[in-house]
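does this look right to u?? glycinamide ribonucleotide version
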Amino acid sequence: MSRDGAPPRARLAVLLSGRGSNFLALQAAIERGDLPARIVLVVSDQAEAPGLKAARELGLRAVALPRRGEPSREAHESKLLSALAEADVEWVCLAGYMRLLSASFVARYPRRMVNIHPSLLPAFPGLHAQAQAVEHGVKVSGCTVHLVDAGVDSGPIIVQRAVPVYDSDSPSELANRILQQEHKAYPEALRRLLAQRWEIVGRRVVFAAEKNL
Ligand code: GAR
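got this back:
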């Protein structure tokens, strides 16, 4: 408990590569009081990412850590780990971070690293998930928030939200429909992780009743 009796707020880092709309959805949920957390660091591998600019405008600590210029993936990840440690980060939230993280990096935040992916996993992992869904001809797609493990989009699922796929959909029309659900699913998933007791049983994230926050 903090001094005012409220539960302590979890310290989040958000990693992004582009627009940052999921980051902004998390920040909005925090500001509404829906998420007992604070974003203590925003990191991008793209110096020009609009999400990084948005974070700075909100007065959040925001750093660019481009992969280019680093001699190796290990060197890049080591800088990232230092930035996370310096900000005393407890949870790492991947929000459109388009870079694979090594197994040893993931192991530094066991069950404390979360990703959002624009498909109903395990369908369509990897790049261009919405185009894969349109191409495949599925009638339903959506988004998945999951814990990160050493694989690609393969960790235990926390929350999923579905949307219809129409015959006339282009990948970008489907992406926009899914994105609206992403902005609800990500705060909801983090809230559940922070506010409820949970355990992993097999591949399953099993939640107990919600704590009083
Ligand atoms: C989102 O659709 C997210 O699900 C996707 O990138 C977009 C980022 O948008 N992530 C992946 O495809 C990861 N495999 P945003 O920058 O506006 O949050």
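The longest strand covers residues 37-44. idk if thats expected tbh
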